[in-house]
Amino acid sequence: MLFRKFLAYILTSVLSTVLLMGILALKEDHPVIDAIGIVALVVFFVTLIYGVPVSVLADYLTKRFNGAGRVLCSLFIHLLFGVAFVFIVGLLVAFDELNFDFRSFWSGVKNYFIASTLTSFLFWASDEAARFILNKKNIS
Fold this sequence. Notes:
By secondary structure, this protein is mainly α. It has five helices and no strands. Helix content is 86%, strand content 0%.
């Protein structure tokens, strides 16, 4: 399982960095090459510290399920924790904007929502792909 999580972590981090840089390029007027180091550092760090444990937890919680039920449950857990991450970061970054005005709070965290949801989905997809490939080859 650790080997599969490591593969999913690396694949997710690289794909997320590339996709987030693409999204940033569409939204920003300045060259995104300036931000690639920061984006990659944040994505790799947060995916390791938050994403890998969430994925291990998802495996633990879904081990009694089989087939599509396990896959969908795992997707739900990954996305749930991805959205939860947005509110955790939002409370840290935009706490002063919360003031029970969700609209202004949302404007401060919507980019985190996109990044977190995308990354949690990519981690789930990478982990499921690695599970499928490694199970075919009988590698843990």
